[in-house]
Write a structure and sequence with these properties.
The complex is a heterodimer of chains A (442) and B (169). Chain A has 442 residues and is mainly alpha-helical. Chain A has 19 helices and 10 strands. In chain A, the strands form 4 sheets. In chain A, strands 3-4-5 form a 3-stranded antiparallel β-sheet. In chain A, strands 8-9-10 form a 3-stranded antiparallel β-sheet. In chain A, helix 5 runs antiparallel to helix 6, helix 6 runs antiparallel to helix 7 and helix 7 runs antiparallel to helix 8. Chain B is an alpha/beta fold. Chain B has a single domain, classed as Beta Polymerase, domain 2 (2-Layer Sandwich). Chain B contains 3 helices and 7 strands. Chain B is globular, with a radius of gyration of 18 Å. The chains are: A mainly alpha (442), B alpha/beta (169).
Amino acid sequence: MTGEELKAETSEGLQELQERDETDPVELAIEEGSPRALPEGAVFPPGDIDVEFGEDETMIINMGPQHPSTHGVLRIMMELEGETVLRSKPIIGYLHTGMEKTGEELTYVQGATNVTRMDYLSPLHNELVFSLATEALLNIEIPPRAIWIRMLMTELNRISSHVLWMATNGMDLASTSMMIYGFRDREMILSFFEKTTGLRMNHDYIRPGGVAADLPDGWEDDVMSIVETIPGRVDEYDELLTGQPIFKRRTEGVGVISPELAIAMSATGPILRASGVAWDLRRAMPYLAYDEVDFDVIVGTVGDSFDRYAVRLNEIRESCRIVRQCVEKMPPGDYRAQDKKVTPPPRARIDESMEALIHHFKIFTRGFEVPAGEVYTAIESPRGELGCYLVSDGSNKPYRMHIRAPSFVNLQSLPPLLRGGLIADAVAVISSVDPVMGEVDR
Amino acid sequence: MTASAGASAAELAGLGAVASSGAGGQDVLHVTRERYLEVARALRDAGFEMCADLCAVDYLRHLDRPVPENVGAERFEIVVNLVSLEHHRRVRLRVQVPEADPVVPTLFEVYPGTENMEREAFDMFGVRFEGHPDHTRILMPDDWEGHPLRKDYSVGRVPVQFKEAPGPR
């Protein structure tokens, strides 16, 4: 390519396709994904990879946004030398629907319906973090049964999300049987969700003040049949993939990230844990009743795609353990706070009491007012730290609702993960980061 | 001045900030724009290794909101959430940014993980981050006009057939 073709003047200044020999070495290093702020040794020096490339022989291609293995509408711009990735840059925004702006237009009662659509693979976690933030501003106590129901449901959701990840990861690595198995297992959990919440996804089940409905009759049997089936199935997948030479050679040593780099890039969840940092918000900053259950934080050693796979596989087992304890320890009582300003009255009361009718009407039309203040709550979603920064001005709608989406932040780790690898491995690496585009773009 | 991430908010404020607290007693430090980068660097050295979140808030309708003394409330606020992995602790920085000159220094040098978040804050609020390596829009199209999450940005409306269709708001 000639110099003129590489340069494009836009309203934001000169864009990045500068010729290699003209680019400032520091800038080149940043484009290649090595942050300046890291300690020496953690930085990739330009030219650390063993590839010869001619002056004008690199190729820039776009992977996505319609590529099947980018998990949605992610586009990655890559500079290639032959099959080796030199530089890459994720380009996002194709699924942006302004959900944070929408959140400012909806009352707190309606808010959970909005946030649940962000990370569509773990909708209950989104509802939970929004509800926890609202409750922190309201300063209300949630009855124990609601807390344990929330734990039960979000852990089941974590299993379904990880099982789906196993399925899509298998598909990306050409193991189509894993894809079928993963979807089969996820369906089992989703049908329990349907029984409990009425919907397979986007439940609006966890609401400020508790949960929308009590668990259905016979829920113990349903849940126990799930947690008795899943571990056996996980053992099968373990056998199917973990020792399989093709799978190992496609994932081991591919997309390695060091703990220092992962922390510097604000990566959380399985990416951070696979690199060896035991950071799990359920353990580090317990919310709900996670300090009352037994579970292990799964940690990797190398930080490659295989470790990220192993961390998720074993987190399914740990989640099954937590679900069992939830079934054992599920306390009786109310499933939502008995605060008449926040919780709608039971349906039966509406026929008898005028006040109940008024409260019901007020809560679902106008909502409730939340004291002015600002709060940040964070939980461990299957993809990492899911945070909600909520600012209230004392009205019935959030003044500002910001969701800290783990996939959005984790995507920044892609350039260092992809650098120096083969383009065929890019598929394995993107899959191992597990981005959910609905959450990335919001 | 050095401090440890285990120190109280009041002690951390000695780095050059004003301490206050959010709902539920969360630690909040108010920092001026001038000292923002310096305080962030000091906090990282004190043990807050990770920047969990960075976002902006537009307080157009609440310019008279309560803030601690010595902090002049401005239209925009940059809110930064830092985490100490060792001490299991969070601290939140709030930086006031005036409407007339919405510029803050970038945290990229200190926390490289803020790259995407700062691009999002710029995209949505038009607050510029001086020194950011790739200061472009991230979610909206490159040629988009306006910054959607500002409070004076119209929400827009889709006319509904069975009503008398309202014009754009």
